[in-house]
Amino acid sequence: MQSHPFVLGANFQGGETIVAYPYDSLRRSAGYQHGDPEDEPQVVADESLFRWLAVSYASTHLSMVQNLHGSCQGDTPSGGHGIVNRAKWKPITGSMNDFSYLHTNCFELSIFLGCDKFPHQSELAQEWEKNREAMIIFMEQVHRGIRGIVKDQQGNAIANATVSVEGINHDVTTGLSTQDSSPPPPSATEINEVEINDNNGNDDHHDYNITPDNHYNSHNAKVHHTLVRLVAHRDGAVLDTWRFHGLHPGL
């Protein structure tokens, strides 16, 4: 995970029909002692994005959101929406989902495919049909967000640079390929500022809007009729080495 900068992941399980998103652990506050009342689960900075990703799978699964009359265990943890925060449902410690979010750029979910953990061979074709479209739609979410290449003033790519988006308390870093992907919240139409830190004491701030358009210019790259307008500046000078492109999650 740390050698390859994945941005989206899922693990498939059984025993329930639901999509669970992080945090998976309760992540108790500092000073908590055994016997104290349980804390409310901490919420990830990107909860709206995680919920969007979870809904993208659950809503296109053929039966997940039809589970309105109780889950496999008799309750209704998802409220009929097919998604749940794992820490509020069945918290676990040391999950891959939490590790991926806290230590890599990857957003990972747990997808519970059905009540039967070990379906019979004769049922596999039906299970595939239930999940096929949902898997495709989920993988397509990797194209949403903002992507770019971090370069120095000489045009050389910079690895391990930190990318911070204003309003989201969760940074991402560029990998060995030097490309980062920073998805905005599902409702975002404008992000005021992105800060780039090459971890050598050099910071850049980048202002841009995500707007529909049909043309290019030196700071624009069009993808599926969505344009990102970028102005990068350092000490008042506009840099021409930045070109971002992305998709608005509402389109």
TrEMBL record:
Q: Name one GO biological process term.
A: protein processing
Q: Which UniProt keywords apply?
A: Glycoprotein
RNA-binding as UniProt keyword: no
The segment(s) forming the Peptidase M14 domain are 1-142
Give yes or no: UniProt keyword Thylakoid: no
Q: Name one GO molecular function term.
A: RNA polymerase II transcription regulatory region sequence-specific DNA binding
InterPro entries reported in the protein's UniProt record: CarboxyPept-like_regulatory, Peptidase_M14, Peptidase_M14_domain
| SUPFAM superfamilies, sorted | Carboxypeptidase regulatory domain-like, Zn-dependent exopeptidases
Q: Name one GO cellular component term.
A: extracellular space
Task: List, alphabetically, the PANTHER family matched.
Answer: ADIPOCYTE ENHANCER-BINDING PROTEIN 1 (PTHR11532:SF48), PROTEASE M14 CARBOXYPEPTIDASE (PTHR11532)
Q: Which family does the entry's similarity section mention?
A: Belongs to the peptidase M14 family.
- What is this protein identified as? Peptidase M14 domain-containing protein
Query: Which organism's genome codes for this protein?
Result: Mola mola
